[in-house]
Amino acid sequence: MGKARTVRRRSEPRLAGVGFILVTVLILLGALNSQNNLLYWAFGAAVGALMVSGVVSGMGMSNFRIEALPIAPGDAGGSVRLRYVVRNIGRLVPAFAVTIEEMIPPDDPGPDVRPWGDTMARPVAFVPCVRPGERSVIEVDASASDRGLYRFEGLVVSSSFPFGLFRKVVRVRAPRDAIVRPRRIAPPARLLGAASARMGTSLTRASRIGQHGEFHALRAYAPGDSQRAIAWRASARADELLVRQAAQTSPRRVWIVLAPIEDESLSERAVSLAAGLAEEAYHLGYVVGLSTPDETVRPSPGRAGLARVFDALAIADPMRARPHRAPVRRGPTDEIVFVHAGSRVPSGWAGLEVSEPRGEAA
Fold it and tell me: Which of 14, 16, 243, 359 is the most buried (most CB within 10 A)?
């Protein structure tokens, strides 16, 4: 994410400013007609207030710089956190009472992208003061009720300091996306393992050479090997240092296949069940893969792999009329869970049927 680029600066008179200008004109007319020195003094004070309002506010905003940081993923029903880096590059005049707002998005931001104005209140941040040479990070939370990919186009930065007569506005283009991941609904108990049981396959993990686990083989010692791995008795018989190689178990994998679903309420529930199943599988030690009507996410270990599954579910649309796709490169011990709403479950797959909240069948 690069620095935000300024689009336009302008000054907008506020209702109080218009009224103040009208009063100033009336004072001038009264002073000219009556030649009253007190009215001339009042007119001069009013003009001075207008000049100070324009100059102080304009200088503060001309030195104000802002950068919108990338948005971390959030969860539906929670919020996403928007972060901005603000700076004052001036040497004398602080920037006071600065308001930062997100631009209202267009009605059609693009394919697979939702306008955030439909489900989020407009995020607004307030910065009381940014001193000359100061740099700070401003954060604001935006509520997110629905999952999806949301696009933020830019910022509206404004200040009405000091008297609220004029509003100095700077529009900044800062495009960035926010992913709101789906809610998680816990799947039925003992669902994982059903596919392997039906196929008659063992859930024993495949072995490969590693540093921990059961004995695999002996090899010659190499600089950097741990002394704990040295097989002293075998080394004495062979008259050279030998180290033990252990068989490291590889994690089990589970594929979650999301079937096309025509009912909108059931499709959203299916996505939430798939997300809950992915989270539970991760905590049970599985590596999770995903196949949806839109894309396939290959299994990868760790939190990063689970995050990719959540991100794919955030934009998945089960209502798209496409047939489900079989997972790619399925291993002999891989499990497959078919999330559906009345579809026929393929042979050897575990089925998770989506229904209304009062009843679920597996």
Answer: 243
